[in-house]
Write a structure and sequence with these properties.
Strand order of the largest sheet: 14-13-12-11-7-10-9-8-15
Number of helices: 11
Radius of gyration: 20 Å
CATH architecture of the largest domain: 2-Layer Sandwich
Distance between the termini: 24 Å
Oligomer: single chain
Number of domains: 2
CATH class of the largest domain: Alpha Beta
Shape: globular
Largest sheet: 9 strands, mixed
Bound molecules: alpha-L-sorbopyranose
Order of helices and strands: EHEHEHEHEHEHEHHEEEEEEEHHHE
């Protein structure tokens, strides 16, 4: 449905929020957003916690069966469950729908939410094909549509970014980035993500490489311009899946539009690594190094006088300082980053323009890079990225 036809949305009365949520991450609106969730798994739990922290009203949830929906409503503290997505979309009181379902369902569900005139948060990967992601971006219109690239909301990621934006770090020279996990290490480890019918053509790269490439571009302010990749599937059979084609690990050489070089390593079979996203960017004046498992510090590398900068609002650029929710020395982490993302999404629904909010266009960008990486690994050649944003 074209944007002018959207029967609702943030500025058309009915379900719209009134008055600002105060911007930033504090969320202090005159009416709390009324939200619904699609999906009943681990991510639904994380989204619900973040929505509650942003003072949303948790109205309803729908999962894959009526029993699961009722259980999720009870467990996560929603007022009710819905019998179907259609029933949820017919509820005029809902401002924002969070989609937390398997990857191949995202395109259709997000399109339905937008067509119903509701704001949407859709899990990554936004879609499993570039054309579906392009269609979603075209359908957003005046609504707010975001993708939880939540690592952007770690204060020390913002600090790293601010150092490149301000020129302090100099020109981007090289990028050393990896995202390693071990939860699919064993042949008995299994999950819907390994199945391309539910997860899509790419698994490890779409699931966690998408976070990595988003962060590389977000922090450097640069764009990947070409990729040369190779991939590996360790197990073609797992406990309840056979003929698995999705990758367990991917290695990529990248070049950027500014001429920087880099490598990305993504694996879900790296023993001892849980969510070890590491991003190191060497600028011509200094390097920055961020480790998602140690998010309270940023390594700032210099020829002389390298430091481990602490997450202390007094020592950070403004965009990093605004995301500090507890005093330095008391650790904040993943859920805080998620909470900040959701609060900024609701602020955007309310008319604010939060800095660095990952929108559907950013989701599309990650889908484009994922596609190029898979194409490269399959063809055994460099793949040039287009010049699209
Ligand atoms: C599983 O690999 C997963 O939950 C991802 O889907 C998330 O995006 C990542 O943040 C943690 O790991």
């Amino acid at each position: 449905m074209a944007k002018s036809e959207s029967p609702g949305g943030p500025s058309s009365g009915g379900s719209s929020l009134s008055g600002p949520h105060g911007g930033g991450v504090s969320g202090s609106g005159s009416r709390p957003p009324r939200i619904a969730v699609v999906g009943g798994g681990f991510m639904a739990e994380v989204h619900s916690r973040a929505a509650r922290a942003a003072r949303a009203q948790l109205v309803g949830i729908v999962s894959s069966t009526p029993e699961k929906s009722a259980r999720a409503a009870e467990a996560l503290g929603f007022d009710r469950s819905y019998g179907s997505l259609d029933e949820l979309l017919a509820d005029d009181t809902i401002d924002v729908v969070h989609i937390c379902t398997p990857n191949t369902l995202h395109a259709e569900q997000a399109a339905a939410v937008l067509a119903a005139g509701k704001n949407v948060v859709c899990e990554k990967p936004l879609t499993t094909t570039v054309s579906d992601a392009e269609a979603l971006v075209a359908a957003v219109g005046p609504l707010t549509a975001t993708v939880p690239f939540v690592y952007r909301f770690h204060p020390m990621v913002r600090e790293a970014r601010a150092r490149f934006r301000s020129g302090e770090a100099g020109e981007v020279l090289s990028i050393n980035a990896s995202y390693l996990q071990d939860w699919l290490l064993g042949v008995d480890d299994d999950n819907w993500r390994v199945d391309s019918a539910q997860g899509g053509r790419s698994r490890a790269f779409a699931d966690i490489g998408s976070h990595l490439v988003d962060l590389v571009e977000f922090v450097s302010g640069d764009r990947v311009s070409r990729v040369a990749a190779t991939k590996k599937t360790v197990f073609s059979e797992r406990a309840s899946h056979s003929g698995i084609t999705t990758e367990d690990a991917v290695a990529v050489v990248i070049e950027t539009r500014s001429g920087a070089l880099g490598t990305l390593l993504v694996s879900q079979v790296a023993p001892g690594r849980k969510n070890r996203l590491y991003l190191e960017i060497a600028g011509s004046a200094e390097s920055v190094g961020f480790d998602q498992e140690q998010p309270e510090t940023l390594w700032v590398g210099k020829r002389k006088g390298s430091i481990l900068l602490p997450r202390d609002a007094d020592q950070l650029h403004a965009d990093a300082a605004r995301l500090c929710v507890v005093p330095a020395g008391h650790a904040q982490g993943y859920q805080d980053a998620f909470n900040a993302f959701v609060a900024d999404t609701y602020a955007a629904v309310d008319g604010a323009e939060p800095e660095g909010l990952p929108r559907f266009a950013d989701g599309l960008r990650a889908v484009r890079v994922t596609d190029a990486v898979l194409d490269s690994a399959e063809a055994g050649t460099w793949i040039e990225m287009g010049t699209e944003k």
